[in-house]
Structures are given as structure tokens and as C-alpha cells.
Design a protein that fits this description.
Layout lengths: L13 E5 L2 E5 L12 E5 L6 E5 L6 H11 L3 E7 L10 H8 L3 E3 L24 E2 L5 E4 L2 E7 L8 E5 L4 E5 L17 H12 L5 E4 L8 H25 L8 H4 L8 H17 L3 E4 L2 E4 L1
Parallel strand pairs: 4-5, 5-6, 6-7, 11-12
Antiparallel strand pairs: 1-2, 2-3, 3-4, 8-9, 9-10, 10-11, 13-14
Helix pairs in contact: 3-4
Bound molecules: zinc ion.
């Protein structure tokens, strides 16, 4: 388990991480968000313009902190990596306050109804322009290019800052925890492919939406791929011992888990099982999973 650092965290303060990157922490800590959502302001602090990545929850206090971090610069784009409620709801009020366009991931349309299927999503998100893989935004001295990384959500994008070699990884790869993949929108096969996609890149550093900057990115991604393969092998081994419902995997796979995170662990196991089912290695019958 991760250890949450001691308070106080630098909520609302603008921290300069590198010449083109300023970070502002939102006041929304939780077992899912670590110390909270990190909003990034991209562009030279004394330049004429900037972009805001993942504006976060629509809390007046956080909006004020973003505007203070932006200063006199014009916001050319409010960019969202994905539409979970801790990432995109502040986009609309920030756009209303500044006139900046919302540019980035696609709005999410869920084809499947069911428990939890849209509770984590922000239905208010309405982009002015959707970026496809390889498309980007440019300002004075900065260029951000979208890197499509579905898996955590189907609409997830990372943004590459071409001038510095930084990649804004949203919730795809984070500095404090592995990403949660929740079906039906989250897809484990896509997530693994998106990790492999980052392995093929040469980014210098990752700035994720939660947790510290990652300065050995490929090492971390390699570890995450290994971790998921290990989880998959554990599931196959447990399936081989006995058919069981999703809940029957948790005690062995997640020893000592904070009980508030059990639903997330069950979702993650489900995501693996659905992926194994797609690959013809597991099947479900009346809520009980068995090997094929
Ligand atoms: Zn998320």
C-alpha cells in the first residue's frame, strides 16, 4: 500500500517544476486521488500565453488558484486528459471566466448501462475541439501533442510537451499508484497496449495528475506492465485451483487492502477477467468465473 504523505500539502500554491510547467494541487484528496488532482499550467511564466491541463474539480478555491498561477497570460486551451469527475468539471467554469476553448479528449458516451457505469464520469464536459492521436496545440514557445492512451478510460489522452520532453500522463501512468481500470469503459487490453505505446517513446519525465513527477518513466512503465502480467498469472492460478466469483480473488490478491478500495480492486480483477475472456482463457457462468 502507498503511504499518503503528511499534511499540509501545497494546495492552491503554484509550484514551478520546470521552465514551462507550473503545477497547482486541487483540494480533493481521497484514496482514489492521493493528495488531490494536479492541474498543470504550460507555457513560460513571463510569456503571453499558456495551456491549462486537467483543470480538476469545479471548486471555487481551486479555480482561483489556477487563475493566480496563469497570471496575466491568455489561456489558449483548457486541455483534459479524460472526463473523470476529478479532472474535467472545472473546464466549463474556467472557460466561462476566461473565454478559453476546451480542447482535448472526446466526451464519453457509454453504451452500457449498469451499476457504476457512469457515476465516476463528468457529464458536463463539452469540448470545443477533440484532439486525435498526434494532433496538438501550439502557443508561444510550447507545443502540446495528444498521445491517445485508452485503457483507464476509453477517451484517455496524454499530452507531450515537445520543447522539454515532458509527458502529461493524466491517470494513465501515475507516480503514486497503478491506474484503476474499470469496465465497461475501462479496458485492460487497451490499457496494456497503451503502456506498450509509452515504452516505445522517449519521454524524459512524466507529470501525472496524481503523485510526484516520474523521472525514470520507462523503468516505471516496464514495472507496471510486469505488475499486470503478474496479476493476470495470479488470476489464472486461482482460477485453476477453483472456479469463483470476482470477490473470491480479492483476499489472496490484495492482502491488507484499505477496505474503501475493495470495490476498485474488484473492478480491476473484473477488467482482467474480461480481457482473459476475450482471449479465450476464462469464462463466466452466473457470476462464477472458470478457466477455459
Ligand atoms: Zn481517472
Amino acid at each position: 500500500m502507498v503511504t499518503i504523505p503528511e499534511k499540509p500539502w501545497p494546495t492552491g500554491l503554484a509550484e514551478d517544476l520546470e521552465p514551462l510547467v507550473r503545477r497547482v494541487l486541487a483540494p480533493n484528496p481521497s484514496p482514489y486521488t492521493f493528495t488531490g488532482t494536479q492541474t498543470y499550467v504550460v507555457g513560460a511564466a513571463d510569456g503571453p500565453d499558456c495551456a491549462v491541463i486537467d483543470p480538476g474539480p469545479a471548486e471555487p478555491e481551486h479555480l482561483a488558484a489556477i487563475l493566480a498561477a496563469v497570471g496575466n497570460r491568455r489561456i489558449l486551451a483548457i486541455m483534459c486528459t479524460h472526463t473523470h469527475r476529478d479532472h474535467s468539471p472545472a473546464a466549463a467554469p474556467l472557460a466561462a471566466a476566461t473565454g478559453a476553448p476546451i480542447v482535448g479528449c472526446a466526451p464519453l458516451v457509454l453504451a452500457v448501462d449498469g451499476p457504476r457505469s457512469d457515476e465516476a464520469f463528468d457529464p458536463t464536459y463539452a469540448p470545443d475541439r477533440v484532439l486525435l492521436d498526434g494532433e496538438g496545440m501550439r502557443g508561444t514557445g510550447w507545443t502540446l501533442t495528444a498521445v491517445a492512451t485508452p485503457g483507464h478510460t476509453s477517451n484517455h489522452l496524454c499530452f507531450a510537451l515537445e520543447e522539454s520532453g515532458a509527458l502529461f500522463t493524466g491517470d494513465h501512468v501515475m507516480g503514486w499508484s497503478t491506474s484503476v481500470v474499470i469496465p465497461p469503459d475501462g479496458d485492460m487490453g487497451d490499457y496494456m497496449a497503451s503502456l506498450e505505446k509509452l515504452m516505445a517513446r522517449e519521454d524524459r519525465v512524466y507529470h501525472s495528475a496524481h503523485g510526484p513527477a516520474i523521472d525514470k518513466p520507462r523503468q516505471l512503465v516496464r514495472g507496471m506492465i510486469g505488475h499486470r502480467r503478474q496479476r493476470e498469472n495470479q488470476i489464472l492460478r486461482l482460477l485453476g485451483e477453483a472456479a469463483r466469483p470476482v470477490g473470491g480473488f480479492i483476499p489472496e490478491m490484495y492482502k491488507g487492502l484499505d477496505e474503501r478500495l475493495i470495490p476498485a480492486a474488484e473492478m480491476s480483477v473484473t477488467a482482467h477477467l474480461l480481457d482473459l475472456e476475450k482471449r479465450g482463457m476464462a469464462r463466466e457462468d452466473a457470476g462464477v468465473w472458470q478457466p477455459v
